[in-house]
Amino acid sequence: MSNQNDGVSSGSDVFKLVGFSNFVRSNPRSDLFPVRRFHHVEFWCTDATNVSGRFSWGLGMPVVAKSDLSTGNATHATYLCRSGDLCFLFTAPYSPSIASSDGLGPSSMASLPSFSYSACVAFAAKHGLAVRALAIEVEDADAAFRTSVAHGARPVSPPVVLDGRAAIAEVHLYGDVVLRYVSYKTPASDRDNSSPDSWFLPRFQPTDEASSFPLDFGIRRLDHAVGNVHELGPAVSYVKQFTGLHEFAEFTKDDVGTDESGLNSVVLGNNDETVLLPLNEPVLGTKRRSPIQTYLEHNEGPGVHHLALMSEDIFRTLKEMRKRSGVGGFQLMPPPPPPPPPTYYRNLRGRAGDVLTEEQMKECEELGIMVDRDDEGTLLQIFTKPVGDRPTLFIEIVQRVGCMLTDDVGKLYQKGGCGGFGKGNFSELFKSIEEYERTLESPA
After folding, report:
1. If you average pLDDT over residues 277-295, what whole number do you get?
2. Torsion of CA 398, 85, 107, 92, to 10 degrees
3. What pLDDT is stored for residue 1 in this prediction?
4. 34 has pLDDT over 70
5. Phi, psi (5° rounding) for residue 59?
6. What torsion, rounded to 10 degrees, do the Cα atoms 319, 338, 308, 2 define?
7. pLDDT of residue 256
8. Among 132-136, 249-253, 430-434, which range has the highest average pLDDT?
């Protein structure tokens, strides 16, 4: 059955979850086109200067590049925050009267060819601060776009070559979120790593902030990006159909819910399992409204639920974030109040005693870090409160331990999704969210 709010159709396949315990993980290497990595995440907002500054300060991501009036772009202001391989773009519109003749559609001055004043303004009014684009680097953006559309993807922005050096295209993902394809005309070894015009996208110029006010909390890349939809089956079928991504994991309310609310979830991954796109749906008819349903109502439809950022040292990252929580940064979600005795952290040694030192386990309790593991590795994770006014988008900080492999040239790398997705922590997270949402409820 299809759901018009998700903007997808279910096709002919019957979708049925088997649950975490019965799910057999396999990798059919079924990508329809080569997918390399997450490239960037773009937020549409109404004030890119201040929003990018807050994320820079709160996450240790310097604003390293810009495309705005000072670079000749009178259509939109866009600022790029970067930490390691993690790139966040923040885009806001200028007055349409100075951008183009009709003030509504794309302009030749825009650095992002799919930008539209009217679409951006409507998006920000509808969703608040939210993610517009999840961008992945592919071998050939034109081929990825054509293949996707041929397999049922809804086209949003056809391929455009920027200054003869990079190509960009977009298809619909879910809600008002697009999946953006980025590819380069030259190999990475031939691109100038000192210029964002070369290593990121053409028409972006460097800022002075990275050198004049360096920030680095240890965040290195985007681990996964989670979407919320009304109905899981049609959304999963749609994305799998036009990308070839395979199911990496799945969870049901019986796996991860609480006595009061829950969700169903499927994680999709590419061949290398470096691009992971979980999708959630709410479980209806529970004692409390599912936090996923709360999101869908406040976001006015499907969208990006949270972004999981990989840290090379989660303890350092969180200590730096906590310093700034009350002065323009992000507030961390406290762990749920445990029933006496505090069994979660008392039992931590059994879950991770062979991986974490005694000092690290004490730090986990002090910082509210949750720890889980699968048969391959260990996952450390913590969540922020929503980043904006609405109880919608939030940030997850993760560190994965284990699953080290060697590539063809002898370089060590970590297998994607090492340690799983916190099945043992989901219920604890839901308790935290339920407690947080109680603080938002009006007194009786």
Report:
1. 88
2. 40
3. 34
4. yes
5. -115, 0
6. -160
7. 66
8. 132-136
Distance CA(275)–CA(268), nearest Å, equals 8
Residues 185-195, mean pLDDT to the nearest whole number = 84
Q: What percent of the chain has pLDDT over 90?
A: 60
Distance CA 429, CA 266 (A): 17
Q: What element of type H or E holds 400?
A: strand 394-402
Q: Judging by DSSP bridges, how do beta strands 205-206 and 219-228 pair with one another?
A: unpaired
Is the CA virtual torsion 199, 201, 207, 210 positive or negative?
Answer: negative
Binding-site residues from annotation for Fe cation: 224, 306, 396
- Give me the amino acid identity at 85: D
Residue 63's φ and ψ, nearest 5 degrees, are -80, 105
Q: What angle do CA 82, 226, 152 make, to 5 degrees?
A: 105
Rounded CA gap, 308 and 274, in Å?
Answer: 13
Q: What is the mean pLDDT of residues 344-362?
A: 78
Mean pLDDT highest for which of 30-44, 272-286, 415-429? 30-44
**β partners of residue 310:** 221, 398
Q: In whole angstroms, what is the distance from residue 238 CA to residue 152 CA?
A: 7
pLDDT digits (tens, 9 = 90+) for 363-412: 988 898 988 877 788 889 999 999 999 999 999 999 998 888 888 888 88
Residue 101, exposed/middle/buried by CB under 10 A (0-12, 13-18, 19+)?
Answer: exposed
Cα torsion at 199, 203, 205, 210 (round to 10°)?
-50
Residue 288, classified by CB atoms within 10 Å of its CB into exposed (0-12), middle (13-18) or buried (19+), is middle
pLDDT above 90 (res 104): no
Global pTM reads 0.90
- The token duo for 126 is 């509808």
**174 DSSP β-pair partners:** 177
Strand boundaries in 25-150, DSSP class E: 35-44, 63-67, 76-83, 86-93, 130-138
- 442 burial (CB, 10 Å; 0-12 / 13-18 / 19+) is exposed
User: Binding site: what residues are annotated?
Assistant: 224, 306, 396
d(CA 64, CA 205): 8
Q: Is 50 helix (H, G, I), strand (E, B) or coil?
A: helix
Is the pLDDT reported for residue 128 higher than 80? yes
